[in-house]
């Protein structure tokens, strides 16, 4: 029996519809339009594609959006000055600095992200928001990718309470926040990484398996418990036009109970949740 395919396209359009309604309500009740500013530094082609997708989705949902392109030789000070300008602009509710940053300022990434006002931090990367997620305070920003994965599991009515959720990957952007979100929903959470012993056995005990490693086809069918839900967060470009996830989809689909494809999976949810975070940010700022 082949797994249920969890289509990012279908869930994302559901979440975007919800976002549209909230945008209309904010307009009606408070006469405000949520606004997002995306800063892109340098000329990374993949980043340009993502930033264009974000801009297009904003238009679709009714969110005001500004893309700010800065040259590759931008200094940390110049970038922080731009962030500060946006921190003070009332019509901008969300600020996102597209990653990765150019090599010359990669080391300054933490300082740069910390310059974003936590109330406008729609990526949820600021330490204040990371802390709020950790202690279960619900007035913070949740990183878009794990937020989208959680909303999809809930919308698909996949049981989380009491389930064993295994996350492969411990990044600040996906692995760690995904673990916190699932823990808050009463899953038993195991976070695995490159030093984990018995990776295969641990993965095979997962009811929900989240792959966020960044290695093509790293998760093979023999690592999946029959009937498990498999979420593939990987985006690996193995040829100019060939995108694959971290899961060996063709074989995994025969074992899993439900599985997300790549492309057409979690990436689309990430953008949908950026819209929701921009709306959440506008609501939070209304209350301040
Ligand atoms: N500050 C920051 N925040 C981010 O959220 C952020 C970032 N930097 N840097 C890069 C990653 C990557 N990311 C994706 C968004 C959408 C798709 C997406 O829509 N993917 C589609 C199409 C992919 C394609 O065809 O290229 C799919 O998987 O079907 C993928 C990846 C956001 N990121």
TrEMBL record:
Its EC number is 1.5.1.5, 3.5.4.9. InterPro entries: Aminoacid_DH-like_N_sf, NAD(P)-bd_dom_sf, THF_DH/CycHdrlase, THF_DH/CycHdrlase_cat_dom, THF_DH/CycHdrlase_NAD-bd_dom. Gene3D superfamilies: Leucine Dehydrogenase, chain A, domain 1, NAD(P)-binding Rossmann-like Domain. Residues 143-285 form the Tetrahydrofolate dehydrogenase/cyclohydrolase NAD(P)-binding domain. The keyword tRNA-binding does not apply. It catalyses: (6R)-5,10-methenyltetrahydrofolate + H2O = (6R)-10-formyltetrahydrofolate + H(+); (6R)-5,10-methylene-5,6,7,8-tetrahydrofolate + NADP(+) = (6R)-5,10-methenyltetrahydrofolate + NADPH. Keywords: Amino-acid biosynthesis, Histidine biosynthesis, Hydrolase, Methionine biosynthesis, Multifunctional enzyme, NADP, One-carbon metabolism, Oxidoreductase, Purine biosynthesis. NADP(+) binds at residues 169-171, 235. Homodimer. PANTHER family: C-1-TETRAHYDROFOLATE SYNTHASE, CYTOPLASMIC, C-1-TETRAHYDROFOLATE SYNTHASE, CYTOPLASMIC-RELATED. Belongs to the tetrahydrofolate dehydrogenase/cyclohydrolase family. Catalyzes the oxidation of 5,10-methylenetetrahydrofolate to 5,10-methenyltetrahydrofolate and then the hydrolysis of 5,10-methenyltetrahydrofolate to 10-formyltetrahydrofolate. This is Bifunctional protein FolD. The lineage of its organism: Bacteria, Bacillati, Bacillota, Negativicutes, Selenomonadales. The gene is folD.
């Amino acid at each position: 029996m082949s797994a249920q395919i969890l289509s990012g396209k279908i869930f994302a359009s559901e979440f975007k519809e919800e976002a549209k309604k909230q945008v209309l309500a904010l307009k009606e009740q408070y006469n405000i339009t949520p606004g997002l500013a995306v800063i892109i530094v340098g000329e990374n082609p993949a980043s340009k594609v993502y930033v264009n997708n974000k801009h297009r989705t904003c238009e679709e949902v009714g969110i005001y959006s500004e893309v700010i392109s800065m040259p590759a030789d931008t200094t940390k000070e110049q970038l922080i000055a731009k962030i500060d300008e946006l921190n003070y602009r009332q019509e901008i509710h969300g600020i996102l600095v597209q990653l990765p940053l150019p090599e010359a300022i990669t080391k300054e990434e933490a300082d740069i992200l910390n310059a974003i006002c936590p109330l406008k931090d729609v990526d949820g990367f600021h330490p204040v928001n990371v802390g709020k997620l950790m202690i279960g305070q619900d007035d913070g920003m949740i990183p878009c990718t794990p937020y989208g994965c959680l909303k999809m599991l809930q919308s698909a009515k996949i049981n989380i309470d009491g389930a064993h959720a295994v996350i492969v990957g411990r990044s600040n952007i996906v692995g760690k926040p995904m673990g916190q979100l699932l823990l808050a929903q009463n899953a038993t959470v195991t976070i695995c990484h490159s030093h984990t012993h018995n990776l295969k056995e641990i993965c095979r005990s997962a009811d929900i398996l989240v792959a966020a490693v960044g290695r093509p086809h790293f998760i093979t069918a023999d690592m999946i418990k029959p009937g498990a839900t498999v979420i593939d967060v990987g985006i690996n470009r193995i040829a100019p036009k060939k995108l694959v996830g971290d899961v060996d989809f063709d074989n995994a689909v025969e074992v899993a109970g439900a599985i997300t494809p790549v492309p057409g999976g979690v990436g689309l949810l990430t953008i949908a949740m950026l819209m929701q975070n921009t709306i959440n940010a506008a609501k939070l700022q209304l209350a301040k």
